[in-house]
Known about the structure:
alpha/beta, Gyrase A, domain 2, Rossmann fold, Isoleucyl-tRNA Synthetase, Domain 1, 3 domains, five-stranded parallel beta sheet, three-stranded antiparallel beta sheet, 19 helices, 11% strand, globular
Amino acid sequence: xxxxxxxxxxxxxxxxxxxxxxxxxxVPPNLELGDYAFPCFILSKELKxxxxxxxxxxxxxxxxxxxxxxxxxKGPYLNFFINRKILNKEVIESVLKDxxxxxxxxxxxxxxxxxxxxxxxxxAFHVGHLRxxxxxxxxxxxxxxxxxxxxxxxxxxxxxxxxxxxxxxxINFLKEKPPKVNRGEWxxxxxxxxxxKLAEDVDGTLGYKEEVSKVLQALESGExxxxxxxxxxxxxxxxDFNSIYDWLGVKFDKIFFESDVEKEGKKLVEKYKKSPKNxxxxxxxxxxxxxxxxxxxxxxxxLALKSDGTSxxxxxxxxxAAKKFGEFGIDKSLYVxxxxxxxxxxxxxxxxxxMGFKNAKNCExxxxxxxxxxxxxxxxxxxxVILFSELKSKIMSxxxxxxxxxHNDWSKDKIEATAKKIALGALKFGMxxxxxxxxxxxxxxxxxxxxxxxxxYIQYVVARxxxxxxxxxxxxxxxxxxxxxxxxxxxxxSLIKKYPEVVKTASSSNRPSILCRYLIDIAQAYNEFYHxxxxxxxxxxxxxxxxxxxxxxxxxxxxxxxLLGITAPEEMWRFW
Length: 576
């Protein structure tokens, strides 16, 4: 495909004296002003002329080409219009030829590891966890689409104080038997009860905190009875997690467990402990704990090992980072974790750097804000969470009912499969459409709507195009793309052309929300085109061109949705 931006820059460079790399181009707010605009302000100081005057003078020197059909001076801008006859054909045929690979990047040499999800066993999987899973999965898909070798990994917290609390309550206070299903979720409720029980021992006279500490020490020392209970109950959580990932269509190449790197972490910290024999060590004793003072870097104090000898997240993260770069040979490591951990990851990466790990500079914290309910922040500790199982049951019940009501002639499997695709479209798009730095206020009713900026709205556009294609029943091998002169058609072609750059930007910035915004824009543009321009009732030649345009829009939307982890149903209920 012709690089029209470069063609415009060459024309400007030839008559302005500027180097190609120094020529800024802008995209006008609407196509009536052209496809590209050169701001003449940049030449004003050197030429000592008003930008408007410069634009007028350049217009006399720069002439249209085969690719650039028209040039206009609009105030201080020189506007360039792409030859639509060439552009229409190039863009639409590129999509129809490449289909699922349109917009993909070339193969890269870098190997990237994306760590995401990171649930804790013995805690319930809730709506707040969904944002991390959706974001991590989409980043993996975007990176792979752009040609990177990607290793998708999960890091499961199967050790730690929260597990000691849960098992302590399980052993000492629990009277009921575990359920046969959703046992991991049930453990989450036990953990919440444990937290409430511990709150009763404010002054420590009941000895609850000491009891929990002993459970934690027994776990870390490998005491047989407590270890057996830990393994059994941890498996309950893993069963729940795997069921959720399977329903979401999320897959990992490797799963790490905190328990696998706990001992390695302690050894690593001890190796870098400052002592008379190891004066170059980093970690110093402070009230029995091992710390690293990072104050001179503005990062406070990094705690590497607790005073009682038990490990922390940091202890294990140091060992995990060493394993990632040593055993997997990755070039870059992405950590998809909430923004509240920003300081911690800055400390972690600086510590790895000071320990001599060369790849520490290639570690990146991909942060995101919280998912909240209208009442405020969710917390497993407080027990005010929307459990994933409850959410799944509710959304599937609603959507199965809606599909069945409109398509009672469909089989049960088709109804459920369609409802599931719409449910995933609603949930994933809802979690990804807000920028990483925006708090999400969860609203299921808004997310499942077929109006507004939602996943189902975009899926519906694909279903609408599928219906048009089925009804057309025509051969579109020979198409006159020059007939696509309507401004709405030109807008769609320009949006299709923009898709590869959108995906590239979303991938490089780790912001799936950029792709979400684009998909809303092109879906809205298509609906506007659909309502304003005849497709099936147009004359034969124009009909073929508009159907080809519709097909190109469909493939772009389907490709974009795939990168968000969403599939569009072939059919949805009849609104047309």
